[in-house]
Amino acid sequence: MRIEVLEYFLEIADCKSFSRASENLFISQQGLSKSMRALEGELGVTLFQKSGRGIELTEEGSILKSYALEITQRSDNLRDHLFRLQLSSAESTDTVPVYATSYVCNAIYNLLDCELDEYGLDCCTISECELNEIISAIGEGETSFGLVNILEEDVKLLEEFPYLKFTPLLSMKIIVKASKNLAPDCSNGEITLEQLSELPLAYFNEPVLNKFVKRSFENAQLEVPTIVLHSTNIGRINTLVKNSKAVTFSDTFTHSVRGVEDEVVYFDLRPSRWFSVGVLESPSLRNNAHQQAYVQRLRALIRFKHRKYISKYAM
Question: How many domains does the structure of the chain reveal?
Fold first, then answer.
């Protein structure tokens, strides 16, 4: 019995709905149902029963809930204790220079803003750079590491630089975000490039995303959709989407952190495409105590605070 499955069980019990729990957990309803059937089979009991339009716990389910709450709380306490030990062992009050790609600067650091502040990881100066600029900065000794995003099929290109090591922190799937009024009829929750090519598109001007768009439509021999907006103005892009004037791209991590938005739906893109966010470093990182401590703390933060996401989207 995995603690993760007990957490799923508790979410269903609180929501009294498999569909609502699947939305909150960012797991397919089919996958969630399969996990609960396996849990019931393992325990030899029925945990849920129908109640009107929803569900409720059986007597056995209520007993499991009391134990599951205690188990998951103990697990959280243990993880929190170990996490804080990792932070304290790598603690540094010095300001660390961070070279980061535009996606890391404008998405990841914004998404993690409160967490970075809470755990002292906002003590840094960030320089927004393109990937090749970060590679040059590391090669010339200006820094020992950079935070980058890269399409998964391009990670192998980093092998051209034998003095560099890339360690993923997060793996993300590119998804499509649309208003309910503009969303195509995709009952399976997926959208194809053909369907996307017929919709107005607004998306963030970022090298990896630009490369993805160009490659995807060229390889599929399709016309690129009508571009309504292509800029770094995230607020304007979101306004266009909410007003049903365009669709846009998002990713599974952003969706996980921000949760469900009113009047907005998300679609898996078919064929699916993935990119990674991670640390690009040189061997000299281990000789720079302050930069190494920052990387260790950031990695520990993501592993602890976003362990459910990482468990689902394993790298």
Answer: 3
Token pair, residue 169, equals 């922190």
CATH number (domain holding residue 68)? 1.10.10.10
15 by Cβ neighbours in 10 Å (0-12 / 13-18 / 19+) ranks as middle
DSSP element (H, E) containing 184: none
Planar angle of CA 148, 153, 156, nearest 5 degrees: 75
Closest among 26, 103, 30 to 259, alpha carbons compared: 26
Q: What's the domain range around 67?
A: 3-88
pLDDT digits (tens, 9 = 90+) for 270-314: 989 999 999 999 999 989 988 998 998 899 899 888 988 887 886
Q: Per residue in 43-80, pLDDT tens?
A: 999 999 998 888 999 999 999 999 999 999 998 888 88
Its pTM surpasses 0.85: no
Q: Is 252 within 8 Å of 266 (Cβ atoms)?
A: no
**Amino acid found at 72:** T
Q: In this structure, are 31 and 98 located in the same domain?
A: no
Residues 137 and 195 in one domain: no
The reported pLDDT for the residue numbered 15 is 92
Q: Do 75 and 220 fall within a single domain?
A: no
